Amino acid sequence: MHSMAHQLGSEYDLPHGATNAILLPYVMEFNMEACPEKFANIAKAMGVDTSAAKSIEEAAKMAVDAVRKLSKQVGIPSLKETAFNPADVEKLAEQAMRDVCTGGNPREVTKEDIMNLYMKAYEG
């Protein structure tokens, strides 16, 4: 996520915290399958009752849903509401792939994955 946020900040002069907040639910959804236990714990830490979850994956999804809800409550915009230009998505993804932070992602990521994540964040 940070590697993607770095590109948005440098290309469009957007605050790093804001770009991370915009990307967070989409990157969480992407990474969820790599570490569902951690995401289930995030849900619990956010005060979500995961006791009704039928699987660890379902509990993990509750974390993503909780972050989406919080993002809406505090007015986090989509990328569409920023200076982001979808025509730049391939260039941004290529740069993100070269960013040192990409190696720390819990799930292997491709340029196409990053392009898709940017577009999901754009579409909201």
From TrEMBL:
InterPro entries: ADH_Fe_C, Alcohol_dehydrogenase_Fe
Tree of life domain: Bacteria
GO molecular-function term, one example from the UniProt record: alcohol dehydrogenase (NAD+) activity
Domain (Fe-containing alcohol dehydrogenase-like C-terminal): residue spans on this chain: 1-122
PANTHER family: ALCOHOL DEHYDROGENASE, ALCOHOL DEHYDROGENASE 4
Protein name: Fe-containing alcohol dehydrogenase-like C-terminal domain-containing protein
